[in-house]
Amino acid sequence: MKRRLLPVACLGVLLAGWNLDTQAADYFLTIGGGYAPTGNQASLEKNVQLFQQLVKEQYPADQPHAIFFSDGSNPGRDLQYRDPKLVIPPINLALAQIFGKGDNLAYQYRTHQVQSIQGGSSRKNIQQWFEKTGARLKSDDRLFIYVTAHGGKSESRRQPYNTTLYLWNSEKISVTEFSGLLDKVPNEVAVMTVMVQCHCGGFADLVFNQADPTKGASKANRCGFFATVYDRPAAGCTPDIDEENYHEYSTYFWEAIRGATRTGKPVGNCDYDNNGSVSFSEAHAYAVITSSTIDISVSTSDSFLRAYGKPARGSTPTTNALLTADSPFDQLFKSATPSQQAILTGLSQQLKLSARNRGQEAWNLARAISSQKQKPTGQLNSKSKELTTLRREIRNQLTQAWPELTEPFHPALPQLLEKQGDQIFATIRKHPRHDRLRQLEKEVEQLQSQVLDLDRRWAKAKRLLQALETVALAANLPQVASEEIQQRYQQLLKAEAGTFGSQDATVARKNSPPE
Q: Is residue 456 scored above 90 in pLDDT?
């Protein structure tokens, strides 16, 4: 059974044009979209388009890029978006609020605009890609997998880390199933994965045989970065079309590699080791430091260390005492990589933490934030209940006079709203508790925002704790793990420190002086 100190999206017509018999190359596989039109938000489309742009920017020549998104080339309206110019009639808005149907009222649907796709995100298409293309990659090739979709918890209590990736038409692929697909790729092929779906942290176990730490470290050359841990949702998916409002993990990860935001604004220095290029691990660190979301992002090395960075039962360290997240901050900082040092410094500054025992200080902060949440959470629950009761009261009054309102598909409803909409609207406004209704709506919104702000700050404290723990586990590895495990960890760190772009472009970047 796993022990961890912290809880720490296609292919029918198969890739004609992917010439696998030429010299070594970088290959790309993007899996994206929702499980249905109502869960296929515009931001998922925008994420794929951003990644397409990044690949074109980083590579002088076209690279093999298989994209599998939602319903593929089907002309149906599969994408949900919010049009800021849409005007909703007051009667529709008022009724939606009273009947509790206001959340999706402004959503509209259209066909997705992702270009150059191979098919929809189905289990069959993905399996065929790995069987017919992934299996034929050569040892010097690299495979980049980007997943921007939805995900869910494990369906087994005994395997909590075996989380799921949601595909189109409500299909799913679990961590263990995805591990089996990756097993079709030759071990020597370097595979780097970025996933941003909810509960994606379970996929960090892809570094183990059958995605199970008890079955040993996989010999395959894999690494990856994940928006959040296995037991938490991820921030991001939205029907909003304004990319300035996008704050999910891969937005920050890719902008660190590009050196610019989605909208073209330059970002600060992400080259934490000052070697002239931004590695995957540095992009991950930048996302951890910069994003103000509920995410607690993880990497494959995080998962690896939590499996092998502690003494086996009954054994004792060979030399010095083991480090923990509560060890002196200066000692942990000296043991950290440049990327880890950037995380420790950046999060400490944002949280205004400076104690020598930074781990205890961060833990106390997280606990204090949890306590702070109790009052607004209780108020939110109370006012939400009152709001629900009041809406029901007004709804009952309306349906007494206009019973057709109880059936949203009643054939008389359109004519009723056209002829008597003003009267219905006036009845709502004249209700003796209408002002209280509006007040409650504002209070609920404010409390939701307050609780979310506290959740974000709590997540930052947890990120710092996780980083401190990771540094400690890495420092302890020589005392608690075999030479083979230590070597495998160093290989994993090297993979995570890889860079994006063609080999020539990478060499040029590394040979250029730092800014």
A: yes
CA distance 222 to 494: 11
The count of residues in the chain is 515
**What's the CA gap between 27 and 134, in Å, rounded?**
9
List the beta bridge partners of residue 66.
29
Query: Phi, psi at residue 479, to the nearest 5°?
Result: -90, -20
pLDDT at 241: 78
pLDDT of residue 194: 98
SS (H, E, C) 35-64: CCHHHCEHHHHHHHHHHHHHHHHHCCCCCC
SS (H, E, C) 221-247: CEEEEECCCCCCCCCCCCCECCHHHCC
Q: From 44, 45, 46, 458, select the one nearest 292 (Cα to Cα).
A: 458
Identify which has the larger pLDDT, 515 or 474: 474
- Alpha-helical (H) ranges within 309-412 are 329-335, 338-351, 358-401
Instruction: With beta carbons less than 8 A apart as the criterion, state whether 464 and 362 touch.
Output: yes
Question: What is the C-alpha separation between 501 and 258, in angstroms, rounded?
Answer: 10
- 298 by DSSP, 3-state: which? strand
| H or E segment to which residue 27 belongs | strand 26-32
The distance in angstroms from the start CA to the end CA of the chain is: 48
Give residue 379's pLDDT band: very low, low, confident or very high (50, 70, 90): very high
Q: Where are the beta strands (DSSP E) in 75-204?
A: 79-82, 107-110, 142-148, 150-152, 164-166, 172-174, 190-195
Order of strands across the sheet with 222-226?
Answer: 65-69, 26-32, 142-148, 190-195, 222-226, 298-299
pLDDT at 317: 59
Tell me if 291 sits within 8 A of 234, measured CB to CB: no
β-partners of residue 430 are none
Report the alpha-carbon distance of residue 125 to residue 106 in Å, rounded.
33
Single-letter residue type at 199: H
Pairing of strands 222-226, 298-299: antiparallel
Residue at 453: amino acid letter: D
C-beta neighbour count of 22 within 10 angstroms: 8
- The pTM for the full model equals 0.91
